[in-house]
Amino acid sequence: MVHKTPPEFAIGKGIVLREGKEVCLLSAGTILPVALAAAELLAQKGHSTRVVSFHTVKPLDRELLAEVFGRFRVVGTVEEHSVLGGLGGSVAEWASELPSSPARLVAVWGRGMSFCI
Question: Taking the model in full, what pTM does it have?
Fold first, then answer.
């Protein structure tokens, strides 16, 4: 289960599912439980990981992305389909317009994926 109670929902606004300080995983759709499991595995290895549900990719939550890319050292997108035209591609396109960012973007998609830092 991703949500214990129904979350506040607004089109174009991400929902923070888990707080963290070092890594941020952005995810959309039915693969959210995989992102949460990855955060738990990363936590076991000592990496504090935030997970954010991007239930709407268009429009993107630009305000949340600006906060994430200014705060985290690694930002990962996790989705079950092609990165092109999806969450990963949209975030990469948005990030390409940044003058600079301390974050490294890692896009992960498909089945049988692995995520490492």
Answer: 0.86
